[in-house]
Amino acid sequence: MAWTPSLTLAPEIEFENDTENEIQREVPVVLSKFVNISRLFWPMLFTTLIIAANCLSLAAFGVEKRLRTYNNYFIINLSILDLLVGLNLITSVVHTYFGYYPLNQVFCKILGGLGQVVCSASNFVVVIICADRHRATYDPINHYMTRSKRKAIFVNSLAWIAALAFWMPFVTVWEFIDDFDNGQHCLRRFTNIPGAYIVNIVVLFYLPLVLIVVLYLRIFRKIRKTIRGKNVKNMMSSQENKDVGMIGNNPVTGSMRELSSITAPIDIHVGSVKDDRVAMSLSKSHGPNKHLKDFANTEKRESAAETRKAQRTLLFIVLSFVISWLPHSIIQLIYAIEPGLIVSGLPRSAYLFLSWLAFGNSLLNPISYAITQPLLRATVRNIISCRGKNRFQ
């Protein structure tokens, strides 16, 4: 029997009914078992890689305290969800070998809903990461001043809450209320209703995709605008430096000139900083030096290195999400509208590949973290080589 992932069940059953069931009735049992074992290898290897890669990422975060930054709390949440995706695929691997769903229908309904929850929450965490980077790009000072690990945990929990609130009623509760017969392949109730099937695909992929694209394009546009602005300022800096000598002889105007040089490059308005803090710092000041000190305290933001690392990590995560999910989701949408276009028009091997590619996102994510974060990469190497804790410092 073919492997039947929980998110792609209906087209898989069509393929099985049209092809493999006929073949297996005509071959000896020994040959059928050999075919099952050979097909078991790749799903089992792929699932093992997903689980191992995300376990290593989480172990690295547990061992190396320097990795537990505000930005990496989003990555930790994504690693947990991707690990659960891999664990959820174990029943599909067993399904591959036996040719039917190995658990009863109660587990089918519950685990089916939870499978949708973790996949959907994983996708929406990518949206949350984009939204956080969007705020860091457009409002860097307030973003830096208000961020905390507690806030990161709260924001990350929203993806779990939203996914549970939608998918458990949509999948599990609905099937229990209707007393739906999931059959030997653990078929989902919504796959029998085209409109509900389309809702599943839209919420699972297309809605996160639209939000991610909008946010990322705005981030990209702001970065390009900032780079162009810096180039203009660099061209003007030589002329401004000449003016400093003329103004610097006056202590008051010289100090105000220094204040301007601090605030102008980052384009701050008083309203963008905590108004009350700025007002208090200005009212209590007794001279130009006090002004400078207060503004230096309130204008904290991410370091350039931290920002670049976060942007690179986001880029890889977004690319992994789109490359992994887009082909499969297009096929699923076409199937929801007209199943015949997929079952008879797409080779079975191609459909299976696209199904695996969607779950491959849970393997590409930890690879992305290792590529963009040298400290994480070094920590994972140390864990694999069983080096002592002192080697992590």
What is the secondary structure topology, with strand pairs?
Elements: H1 9-25, H2 29-63, H3 70-88, H4 90-98, H5 105-138, H6 140-146, H7 149-178, H8 194-247, H9 251-263, H10 275-283, H11 288-298, H12 304-337, H13 339-343, H14 348-359, H15 361-372, H16 374-384
Helix pairs in contact: 2-3, 2-4, 2-15, 2-16, 3-5, 3-7, 3-15, 5-6, 5-7, 5-8, 5-12, 8-12, 9-11, 10-11, 12-14, 12-15, 15-16
How would you sum up this structure in a few lines?
The chain has 393 residues and is mainly alpha-helical.
Walk me through what this model shows.
Helix content is 79%, strand content 0%. The chain has 393 residues and is mainly α. The protein is globular and about 75 Å long. It starts with 8 loop residues before the first helix and ends in a 9-residue tail after the last helix. The model is unreliable at 1-6, 8-31 and 251-298 (pLDDT under 50).
Largest sheet, strands/sense/barrel:
none
**Unreliable runs:** 1-6, 8-31, 251-298
Mean pLDDT: 77
Based on Cα principal axes, name the global outline: globular
Q: Kindly provide the radius of gyration, computed on alpha-carbon positions and rounded to a whole number of angstroms.
A: 27 Å
**Helix-residue proportion:** over 70%
